[in-house]
Write a structure and sequence with these properties.
Number of helices: 17
Strand content: 15-25%
Largest sheet: 8 strands, antiparallel
Radius of gyration: 25 Å
Oligomer: single chain
Distance between the termini: 44 Å
Amino acid sequence: MIHKLVPLATLSLLACVASSCVSTETAPPTAATDSAQGSGRPKDRFRFFNAKELEPKGWLRKELEIQLAALPANLDLFWPSVRNSQWIGRGNDNWERFPYWLDGSLTLAYLLRNQSLIDRVQRHMDYILDHQCDDGWICPCTEEQRPKYDLWALQLFTKVLCFYAETTGDPRGEEALYRMLKQFNSHLDTHKLEYWGYARWFETMIAIDWMLERRPEPWLLELAAKLKAQGLDYVALCDNWPYKEAIGDYKYESHVVDMGMALRAGLIVNKVLPDPRQQEQPKRILEILRRYHGMVHGHFTGSEHLAGLSPIQGTELCGVAEAMYSEELQLAATGDVEWGDWLERLAFNAFPATCSPDLWSHQYLQQSNQTSCVEQPKKLWTTNWKEHVRNASCFGLEPYYGCCTVNMGQAWPKLAMATFMKAEDGIFSAVLAPSKVTTTIDGSTVQCELNTGYPFRDRLDYTVECSQPVTFTLYIRIPKFAKSAKIDGKSVPTGQIAAIRRTWEGRHAVTVELDFEAELLDRPYGGLKALVRGPLVFSLPIASQWTEVKPQNFPFCDYDIRPTEAWNFAFASTRFTVEYGDDSAFDAPFNDANPPVYIRTDMVPIPWSYKEGFELICNEFPDSLEPQGPAVSKRLIPYGCTTLRMTEMPQIDNAQ
């Protein structure tokens, strides 16, 4: 059926529901308020489906299955910080690591319907719920230890409990969270927020908002007000931003993970304690972070604290995972297409690049220009360097701090949770990855599946099936970085949400075609440039040799990774040819051996040295732009497919 274009306002006036309509929203609509509670709290534009309603497909399912068989899903079987955690009655870590692991593993287990992981997670949750203190305290420490206990672990676990209760329907989850929050409210009267709890106080607002929907009791707003009063003020930080260069010492307000979380701070605070200044804060802080510390894939450097604009400075895996979650929440709450674009840039570039393709190892820090991952003789990073500790850019089980070991497990599952979202009048295709949702709309069982090779391909194929005729709207995010777009052959604007409203009956197909152009972006450091096409950043891959540092621990060992070919090149052309791999690439798409898409262009070798005093680390800039040989055709592959890479490179003056 050919869809006709109509103004969005017309949708509510349609009397004939047998025909289709396609419209677009030029901007996210003003958030509604939760009038049912009489609270005036902003209401999310879209809401997340339950994990049981979603079924990842295609390459996304493959990535989740790789995770299921690899390090993130199995830490409770072998890694002491999780396997022997005090959270489950043993003698090891009693703080953030076990809740971090649960956060990702719960989601993964139910998305894949994997009974083994479901049973393991349930056994752990049973222990924690059964051992909650009579007064509601739930963290694994004695009553005497509570005054000095860093409340970040408690705040993190409130989020885990929300997901557990929402997904499983276990009434113990809601009751445990209610008692936990009530005890937290009393605790703050005599024990003020400190340390990481001070910096990440707003995370508790997720649970408070969730509980207010179910039990709108005044003390919940009192707890929210106490947290806001005692926690780091991110609005004031934006007003007087002091960190315009690399940070060489430890500060909570310059920590890259705190900054990744801060991208959702104002959003979730504003939902509980409405305040226009909070609502504006996330985009303000993102603009500031990118201006002074931005990386080509849209994240910001932080090793471990904000590290400036140099392409050889790094960013922490935890920061990427938390920024992804922030942008998922922002996209759901606001319907602002840009949050989805920024999310996809992170998810399809920064996150997979910081993990090995088999997900049995990861980096603590990744670099845009990464010519080796080996031990360094002295400090390269702003703060991440310790003598006799593995270099933070090395791949391994725990290459620096173990937070990234446990936090890497949340990224892919939560992205899958953001593929389809609920709208008041239908379904929103938010993150354009292959997935299927099954839900009920006005008594009809509705299945909507997206079959796509995006971001490696430019076509989206939707199939909608209904058990009986039903009228609803299918919303589709059309990325702003697309040059043009068509729905069933009809042009639609980019950077907007397409709305298709009709009476759906039986089986119906919708096709979206996206057009992207390869282009060189100016980078803010030294006149370098980077190649992008749509959601993907492209890098010059560097062939490498992986050496097991602890082979006796395979598959969870550490590696040294050294270059085995030249990497010193400059762009020598503005002509870019897009080529595609075969379908086998989608079995493990983030892999330099068989990438699903690549771009060929001419490049020339130029003088570019290693940084003096360091081991195989390239200088920030080339020595000169004088060609050292003729132009050669080079193949650039997606950033997320690379391990060693050059991403930010100069363009010579005579480029064609």
